[in-house]
Amino acid sequence: MKVIFHTDFYREYTSDPAAVPGRMEAIVSALQGKVDFITPEPATLDQLRAAHSIDHIESVKLERVYDIAALAAGGSIQAGRIGLAEPAFALIRPPGHHASHSSCWGFCYFNNMAVALTALKNEGLIQTAFVLDFDLHNGDGTINILGHTGWVQILNPVNRTRAGYIKEIEERLCGLKADIIGISAGFDHHEDDWGGLLATQDYETIGRMVRDTALACNGGCFAILEGGYNHGVLGQNVLALLRGLEPGL
Length: 249
Ligand SMILES: [Zn+2]
Known about the structure:
12% strand, alpha/beta, Arginase, Chain A
């Protein structure tokens, strides 16, 4: 599997939990030797403007995180493009699902998923998309930007039991029609992370369901890293998802 990653993502660009040292390293070491790492280019200003207001982009510049946030968004676009042909993963930070059109919070600056899907749409590569956001937290920014466009469906599962959570995803994917499925992959709902609900094997199950659904609708799929803060389990959780998306990995 192709994993989009840049060594700039090792940088501690802020003091929040998404930016701490060791987080990217934990994932890279779990994936090393199993995937092909690909170096991304930053998103262009036009690609960012397709999802965000100029004022918001300027405010990100003032926070001195523009370069790293644009690189994360660019890596997400690349994962989406590859995802049309084969499953791909954007191992990026800062995360994006709390970034709205004109504001952001929760360790996010640019909405990586919204920038990626909008770029694919504007390039004529897709007509419709589905976003599965299994992060512990609701992807309010993604809903803000994409929720009312008419061409994107979004699921933030809310079931509070482990089995119910998986079932909720399964039911929504059943019969789904979309040109691409984008996963906002936050791992903070893991039993050893903040949310305390999902087991590592559940990420493989979810990945397999997404892969099967994408194949059934002759579409693509890709995933973008969102949250996940326990470095002791984060790498294995990412690997489990990728194994679901690509059996035999
Ligand atoms: Zn989260």
